[in-house]
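Table S5 (text form). Sequence records supplied for joint modeling of the two-component complex.
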Amino acid sequence: MNRIFSVALNTFREAVRDRVLYNLVFFALLMMAAAIFVGQISLGIESTIIVSLGLSAISIIGLLIAVFIGVGLVSKEMDKRTLYALLSKPIRRWEFLVGKFAGLVLTLTVNTAAMAAGLFLALLFVKRTMENNDTAILVAVYFILLKIAIVVALALLFSCFTSQLLAILFTAGLYLAGLFIHEMRNLSGSKVSPAMQLFFSWISYILPNFENFNIMAAAAHGKSVPESLILQNTAYAAIYCLIVLAAASVVFSRRNLK
Amino acid sequence: MPGLAIQTENLTKDYPTGFLHMKAKRSLESLTMQVEEGEAFGFLGPNGAGKSTTIKLLMGIIFPTSGSAKILGRPISDVEMHRNVGYLPEQPYFYDYLTAAEVLDYFARFYGFSPAERKDRVAKMLKKVGLETAGKIQLRKYSKGMLQRVGLAQAILHDPKVVVLDEPMSGLDPIGRREVRDIILELKREGRTVLFSTHILTDAEMLCDKVGVIVGGKLQGVGRPDEIVGLKSQGMEILFETDATNAKSTAILARAARSGTRYTLRVPEDSLYAALDELKAAGAKIASVSQIKPTLEEYFMHLVAKDRAQAAAVEVGDNK
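The corresponding C-alpha cell record, covering 578 residues in total, follows.
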C-alpha cells in the first residue's frame, strides 16, 4: 500500500509542478464573467445558466486533463526511461499502475473540488443565497468525477501498449461511444439488420455507460437525485475501473520496455 | 567458499522485428554465467553486443524468451529480490521536476525506511556522490555527469548486496570517472558484489576480479582479466638509446623500430640475453626491458573482428 501511495503522491506532485492546476485560473475567469453577464441579461434563470455552464466546464476541463495526462502516465515514463530505475526497486508493476491511476485521480479530485467551489461562489454571487436542492450540484460534480476516473483508467490502459496519439484517439472514441449507450440498446425500430442490433446490444454492455453520469439538467433545475442512483453509479465506476486496471496490469506485466 | 550472487542459465532474448512482428532478432543467446558474492565482475563488449540486454533482463525491465536467472538465490521474477540489489541504468534519466534529494527520498520510500532514516540516507548519499550542495536543485538543471551521480546514489541508497551498473562511466569527465571508479572500489572493499558493463577496457582491467566478454549476443569467455587474454608471453621488448655508428650497431638498428631518440627491439624470450649482449657490445644504453603480453584490448578487437567475419559469412551464405 505504501508503494502505491508513494507513486500516487509523486504523480500528483508531477501534475502540480507541470502546472496542470493552472486551468483553475481559466475556470475562475469563466465563472466570474458568467456571473457578471448572466446577472445582466437573463430573466430569472441566472442560476440555471450558471450551473449548466459551470458543470459543463468542470466536465470538459476534467476530461481533457484525464485524456491528455492519462495517456502519458505510463508511456511517458517508458519513453523517458524513468521507469528503469523505478522497476529495479521492490515494486510490482501493477502497484505502479494503480499508483499512477490514484495520483491522477487525486489531482483531478483536487482540481474538480476547486472548480466546484468556484461554481458555488458564482452561484452565491448571482442568487445571494444557497438552497437545500443545491446539493444536487454537488452530486453532479461527484458523478463527473466518477466519469473522469473511468476515463483515466481507460487512458492508462491504452497508455500501456500504444502510442500517445493512438491512446488519445481510443480513449476519446470510447468516451464518445459511451455517451450513446441508450441509442445502441434501442435500435430495434431502425433499419439496422438484426445481427447488427444484437452486436450493438452486446457491445453496449461492454462499453462504459457515461449517460448515467449526466445529471446536469436535473442539477441545474434544482431537482433531487435519488440515493439509489448515487450508489449505483459509485459501484459501476468502481467495478469498471477495477476491471480496466486489471486488464492494464495484465498487459503491462508482460510488456518489455525499450 | 562464497555463494553465487548472480547466475544465469541459457538466458536468451529475441526481439520481434518486421511489420507484423513475424521475424525475430536474437539479441542474447544462451547466456550461462555466474558471479560470485563479493566479486567485481566486468561485462565487456562493443555497443550492441548484448550487455544492456542482459542487465535489463536481470533487472526485470524486459523478459527472457527462454532461460532463467537468479540473483542471491532468488529468481529474477521475484520482486523482493530487488531489496538487496541496486541498479544504475545506462544514461539514467529521472523525474526532472524533482530535486536530487526528492528523487532519492522517493526511491527510498520503496524500501520502507522511516522518514528520519530516509532523510539521513539521502544526505549521506548526496555527500558520497559529491552533490551535497546541489541536492535542492531540480534535475532539469543537472548536467549529464551530475545525473550519473544521482543514478549511482539511488543505486546504493539502500545498502544493496549486489550492485548492477550499466555503463557507469559513460558521459563522465576524467574527474567524474575517477570518482565513480573510487565508489566501485569502495563497494568492493565493503564486500558487495558489483556487476558493471563497459566498453572501456582499462576500467575493467583496473577494477574487475573477473570479466566476461560478450560479442554478438554470445558470451565469448569469462575469467580474470589477465587469464582471459592468456598469460603466455609473446616475447620481450627492449628499449634502448644509442649514438654509435659501428657495424654491430647498424645490424641491430636495422631490426629495431625508432621512436625519437630511442629504439625498440622485440625479441623472442629465449633470445633476450643474446640480444642484451649484442646491444652492450654495440655500446647501446638500455632504458627498459619488458614482457610483451596481449592486452585486453587486443583480445577484444580480435573477438569483434571474428564475430564480424562470421556475420558476413552468414550473410553471404543467405544471399546464395
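Note: Chain A has a mean pLDDT of 88.
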